[in-house]
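Is this the right way to post structure tokens for a design question? Let me know if I should format differently. Anyway, here goes:
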């Protein structure tokens, strides 16, 4: 019960789940490019960027919740601010304390969703109205979808925290299927941005229903929780919140830094260079995000296991697992980048008026690669319940945004300023600092880390190939 089990099935479901997440974009992208005007495409990307502002209200709770749920599931009887409580070998889950952590998180996300909806329907509505008054109704519906997703996104953290990776991805598949089907139907019916907004709202409802079902049934969690008759007091919830908030506030600053590194540039682009250019830049960022999402599956799937390794002080096992996932990420990302370049003529055929600079696209992808590498290092460090990178992330992000604005607005390089600025800032510190921190944390050299990573990757790939061959033999 106290162990987190990440098997091949979880990895496979992670790929399937990520495929559907990407498929939602890949399948919808041609339809969106074909049926939306350049300005409508730009406003849709602005929708996404403005909505990401309210994601900042999560303020790091998603990552912190998943981490603390994992600690509670592994058997700790109390949460600590900067360390991990000691546990006995094979210690069982304390479901009374587990329930307290769950209830605290539900209260937190109810408040966050309410604040998010208020912001979207006031400041957000005003901003969208200044850009395109005809999109007001679509924005209201989209805002409801965002709030609904935020209200129930704690189920994603719950599922990942207990190691239910396969179940989390099954819920994601259901969610994306709903979004894809509804969006395509409404886009061809002529509803434009309103149609994709309705699809997003309905996908949020699907996420809530499916995630709750999977979580309740995983390892009979609902049954175990129903056996706890002790009522949780408000004082207990308040005290647990204070502990969670200690690192959530730091994770929140990291979330803010991530926003500034990505979405803020889209807003700069829309205000300085116009909606049509924003559509082109937004597409490049979207494609790089898709590549990072697919390539990052091994890491995201094994993160609960890395958290368990941290709880059990198994640094050797953690180092092998992390190095392997990093090698798989980098190799996969490079391969996916090549495929995207080959698909550019198809995108151009779908949207002849859309201008895509190949070199700019490659620069955006390179930026996404290095950002993901040091963010994965930061995520690994956080499994030890310490976040030394917070200040560096927020300072570098603020500097990058300011530099992006200055280069885009006051020099002749235009859209290139949105890529060069964050690259310059990243290489000045974060790119080398946090990978080096991880090497020191595990007390290994870079060469040993790389060798270990390739060895682990080979073993994993070999096992997958062997399993596929056995299945083929069985079928014959």
């Amino acid at each position: 019960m106290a162990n987190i089990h990440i098997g091949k099935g979880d990895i496979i479901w992670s790929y399937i789940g990520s495929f559907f997440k990407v498929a939602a974009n890949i399948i919808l992208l041609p339809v969106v490019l074909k049926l939306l005007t350049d300005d409508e495409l730009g406003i849709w990307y602005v929708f996404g960027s403005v909505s990401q502002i309210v994601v900042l209200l999560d303020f790091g709770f998603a990552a912190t919740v998943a981490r603390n749920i994992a600690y509670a599931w592994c058997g700790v009887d109390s949460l600590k601010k900067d360390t991990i409580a000691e546990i006995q070998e094979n210690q069982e889950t304390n479901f009374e304390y587990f329930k307290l952590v769950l209830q605290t998180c539900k209260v937190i996300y109810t408040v966050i969703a309410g604040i998010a909806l208020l912001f979207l329907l006031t400041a957000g509505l005003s901003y969208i109205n200044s850009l395109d008054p005809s999109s007001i109704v679509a924005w209201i519906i989209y805002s409801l979808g965002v709030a609904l997703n935020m209200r129930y996104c704690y189920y994603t953290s719950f599922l990942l925290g207990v190691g239910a990776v396969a179940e989390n991805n099954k819920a994601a598949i259901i969610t994306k299927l709903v979004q894809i089907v509804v969006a395509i139907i409404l886009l061809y019916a002529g509803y434009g941005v309103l149609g994709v907004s309705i699809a997003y709202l309905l996908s949020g409802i699907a996420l809530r229903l499916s995630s709750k079902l999977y979580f309740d049934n995983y390892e009979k969690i609902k049954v175990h929780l129903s056996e706890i008759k002790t009522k949780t007091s408000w004082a207990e919830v308040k005290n647990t919140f204070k502990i969670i908030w200690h690192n959530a506030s730091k994770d929140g600053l990291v979330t803010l830094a991530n926003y500034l590194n990505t979405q803020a540039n889209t807003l700069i682009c829309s205000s300085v260079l116009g909606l049509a250019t924003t559509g082109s830049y937004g597409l490049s960022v979207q494609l790089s995000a898709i590549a990072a999402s697919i390539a990052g599956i091994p890491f995201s799937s094994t993160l609960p296991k890395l958290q368990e390794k941290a709880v059990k002080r198994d640094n050797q096992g953690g180092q092998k697992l992390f190095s392997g996932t990093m090698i798989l990420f980098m190799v996969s990302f490079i391969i996916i980048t090549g495929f995207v370049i080959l698909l550019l003529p198809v995108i151009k055929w779908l949207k002849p008026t859309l201008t895509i600079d190949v070199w700019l696209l490659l620069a955006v992808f390179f930026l996404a690669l290095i950002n993901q590498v040091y963010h994965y290092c930061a995520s690994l460090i956080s499994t030890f319940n310490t976040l030394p990178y917070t200040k560096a992330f927020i300072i570098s992000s603020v500097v990058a945004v300011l530099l992006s604005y200055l280069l885009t607005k006051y020099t002749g390089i235009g859209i290139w300023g949105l890529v060069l600025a964050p690259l310059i800032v990243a290489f000045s510190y974060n790119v080398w600092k946090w990978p080096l921190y991880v090497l020191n944390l595990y007390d290994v050299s870079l060469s040993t880390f790389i060798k270990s990573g390739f060895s682990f990757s080979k073993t994993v790939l070999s096992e997958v190939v062997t399993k596929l061959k056995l299945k083929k033999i069985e079928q014959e």
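Format looks fine. Someone answered above. Worth noting: Residues 8-475 form one domain. The chain has one domain: 8-475.
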